[in-house]
Amino acid sequence: MAKDTPKDYRSLVIYEIYIRSHSPQGTFQGVTDDLPRVKDLGVDVVWLMPIHPIGQVQRKGSLGCPYAIADYFSVNPEYGDMEDFKNLLNKAHALDLKVMIDVVYNHTAHDAFLLNEHPDWYHTGADSRPVTTVPEWNDVIDLDYSHPELWSYLISALEQWTSLGVDGFRCDVASIVPLDFWLQARAAVARINPRMIWLAESVEARWVAQRRSSGRQASSDSQLYQAFDITYDYDTFDAWKNMIAGSLDLRYYLDLLRLQDCIYPENYIKLRFVENHDNERVMALAANPQQALAWTAFQAFNKGAWLIYAGQEAGTAHLPSLFEKEPLEWGNYAFTDFHRQMAAVKKDPAVTHGELIWSRAEPAVLGIWYSPGGSLAGVFNFSGQTGEMETGLPDGIYKEHLSGGSVSIQNGRILLPESAAIFNCQPMHPLSAYPTLLI
């Protein structure tokens, strides 16, 4: 992990916004107007998906994908102008919100300004024409990092946005951009803002293996921690999806989480989520809202920063198209209180100072953030079973964070919650006394 990463980053609540779909107008101003509500959720960082102009050539859909970028130094006129973006930054900072923007440095649009200026800075095919190395991404072409001048050009864009007041970078498919570039970029940006937050979209293990087998660049998560504060949870996300689909044993998935503790740097930080712009909405996957809330509470409770994808707090089941304008249907923001309570859990002293173990898998999952000054327990009922379960926790009546009510432990046993229950408690033994699910 980057040596200057603060430990408290593992308690960050990050809120992802696709500007085009966030409001009826789909503009910077639409986001700016909504920032007070976002702040009230308990959010720390607002992540804006790409804010830059989108290419015209080979664009997908009628409006194009925001990840097919035409110019790294300006903003998409569909969203507003630079003054509108600066106003968004200023409003966010006045609310004590940080703003993170997307950095898409593996590829550009086919008609990017950079292609006209430096056609030699692109990966080419047998016909010497720029191509993508990911066939399904046919609206973009890949950059060639064998040119040191390209590094300077891209870093200068990061310096511009940092100087404007941007607080963090979410780096798209960071694994397939050279690690040495990210190290150089981080050092350059730190001279302007040493507290810049660096989030890597690290890729699935199969992707790393596939790229390496074809002789292409691919960094593992453990390598990326040299340059980044936070990496994606995609190393275990396939297992997560199989687990919630019922095709993978829950105990195996929990063992993978424990394995992360063993193979990554001390106090590593993962980005935990149940949905994002590339993955289905949790409400579309779950059998019912209670199951969706149990899954969401589990990932928010899990070790690492927590991502909320805009619309999640409204319980929307529709994933907006990346290529069209599909404004979110907010309704009555039905799950705002739930997400607000989970954001508060991320700031509990047991989470900020303690250590997490997953102690039981059946009939529900039991996790304990152990801290000598007071611990936090979470029970997550994915199956919706009724009855009791053994916890090993001391008897007592404890305040439950999600409902505002209480839970009772008698003879070490607890009634299973409908979805999830999270409560502070005082374990009688040190962490090592509790069973873990380590493989």
Write the layout of secondary structure elements.
Blueprint: E1 13-17, H1 19-22, H2 28-40, E2 45-48, H3 82-94, E3 98-103, E4 107-109, H4 113-117, E5 140-142, H5 148-164, E6 168-171, H6 179-190, E7 197-200, H7 205-213, H8 221-224, E8 230-232, H9 234-244, H10 250-263, E9 270-272, H11 282-285, H12 289-301, E10 305-309, H13 336-345, H14 349-353, E11 355-360, E12 365-370, E13 375-380, E14 388-390, E15 396-399, E16 406-410, E17 413-415, E18 420-425
Parallel strand pairs: 1-2, 1-10, 2-3, 3-6, 6-7, 7-8, 8-9, 9-10
Antiparallel strand pairs: 4-5, 11-12, 12-13, 13-18, 14-17, 15-16, 16-17
Q: What does it look like?
A:
- The protein is an alpha/beta fold.
- Helices cover 31% and strands 18% of the residues.
- It has 14 helices and 18 strands.
- It has helices at residues 19-22, 28-40, 82-94, 113-117, 148-164, 179-190, 205-213, 221-224, 234-244, 250-263, 282-285, 289-301, 336-345, 349-353; strands at 13-17, 45-48, 98-103, 107-109, 140-142, 168-171, 197-200, 230-232, 270-272, 305-309, 355-360, 365-370, 375-380, 388-390, 396-399, 406-410, 413-415, 420-425.
- An 8-stranded parallel β-barrel has the order 1-2-3-6-7-8-9-10. The chain has a 4-stranded antiparallel β-sheet with strand order 11-12-13-18. A 4-stranded antiparallel β-sheet has the order 14-17-16-15, with no helix packed on it.
- A hairpin with a 4-residue loop joins strand 11 and strand 12 (365-370).
- Helix 12 runs parallel beside helix 13 (336-345).
